[in-house]
């Protein structure tokens, strides 16, 4: 792609498979963004290895090494600013960000969550879905506000919950959709094709049907 690419900062805490999906998308010539920096609050996160393997700058900002949340967030902001980050993607980042931090990237922070929000926000979304007995669940990409998984929804993908599912099998089925949905949503958002009134979003470029996913039990083949 000719033209400037939007600089993403990706915040991680764990395995980083969604980071990998973003790195893979950014490696494609026609993708409008690049990962400028990966910040982890967990020094041992495997996501850091994925970033290094892709030649992306990494910064560890360990929340345990900072006396307050304000100092922790200031260190993250420093890292993002030094890397010239314009948009922030949370990808399995396990700390809540303050309204103050979010204000520094107003309307430019995205998150992915493994449920069809507003169902099952917070931790263990797959377990919550199994315990509640839903037959369809999925994943959501949304703008981040100061609540827990409450910001305006950009896109969702659904998967069936099968009778013998446990957290692992259901989580893997959802993750496969996450890896498709996140790059798609990032592309739409950073190219200005998603507007939000603070609650609802409108996507001006309708994705092709092959990019969308809506499945019901038994219909996934
Ligand atoms: C994903 O399920 C994501 O939706 C949630 O945390 C998990 C992170 O997985 N926010 P990974 O680190 O991207 O593999």
From TrEMBL:
<comment type="function">
    <text>Catalyzes the transfer of a formyl group from 10-formyltetrahydrofolate to 5-phospho-ribosyl-glycinamide (GAR), producing 5-phospho-ribosyl-N-formylglycinamide (FGAR) and tetrahydrofolate.</text>
</comment>
<dbReference type="InterPro" id="IPR002376">
    <property type="entry name" value="Formyl_transf_N"/>
</dbReference>
<keyword id="KW-0658">Purine biosynthesis</keyword>
<feature type="site" description="Raises pKa of active site His">
    <location>
        <position position="149"/>
    </location>
</feature>
<keyword id="KW-0808">Transferase</keyword>
<feature type="binding site">
    <location>
        <position position="111"/>
    </location>
    <ligand>
        <name>(6R)-10-formyltetrahydrofolate</name>
    </ligand>
</feature>
<dbReference type="InterPro" id="IPR036477">
    <property type="entry name" value="Formyl_transf_N_sf"/>
</dbReference>
<feature type="binding site">
    <location>
        <position position="69"/>
    </location>
    <ligand>
        <name>(6R)-10-formyltetrahydrofolate</name>
    </ligand>
</feature>
<feature type="binding site">
    <location>
        <begin position="94"/>
        <end position="97"/>
    </location>
    <ligand>
        <name>(6R)-10-formyltetrahydrofolate</name>
    </ligand>
</feature>
<dbReference type="Pfam" id="PF00551">
    <property type="entry name" value="Formyl_trans_N"/>
</dbReference>
<feature type="compositionally biased region" description="Polar residues">
    <location>
        <begin position="197"/>
        <end position="213"/>
    </location>
</feature>
<dbReference type="InterPro" id="IPR004607">
    <property type="entry name" value="GART"/>
</dbReference>
<dbReference type="GO" id="GO:0005829">
    <property type="term" value="C:cytosol"/>
</dbReference>
<protein>
    <recommendedName>
        <fullName>Phosphoribosylglycinamide formyltransferase</fullName>
        <ecNumber>2.1.2.2</ecNumber>
    </recommendedName>
</protein>
<feature type="domain" description="Formyl transferase N-terminal">
    <location>
        <begin position="7"/>
        <end position="186"/>
    </location>
</feature>
<feature type="region of interest" description="Disordered">
    <location>
        <begin position="197"/>
        <end position="221"/>
    </location>
</feature>
<feature type="binding site">
    <location>
        <begin position="16"/>
        <end position="18"/>
    </location>
    <ligand>
        <name>N(1)-(5-phospho-beta-D-ribosyl)glycinamide</name>
    </ligand>
</feature>
<feature type="active site" description="Proton donor">
    <location>
        <position position="113"/>
    </location>
</feature>
<comment type="pathway">
    <text>Purine metabolism; IMP biosynthesis via de novo pathway; N(2)-formyl-N(1)-(5-phospho-D-ribosyl)glycinamide from N(1)-(5-phospho-D-ribosyl)glycinamide (10-formyl THF route): step 1/1.</text>
</comment>
<dbReference type="GO" id="GO:0006189">
    <property type="term" value="P:'de novo' IMP biosynthetic process"/>
</dbReference>
<dbReference type="GO" id="GO:0004644">
    <property type="term" value="F:phosphoribosylglycinamide formyltransferase activity"/>
</dbReference>
<comment type="similarity">
    <text>Belongs to the GART family.</text>
</comment>
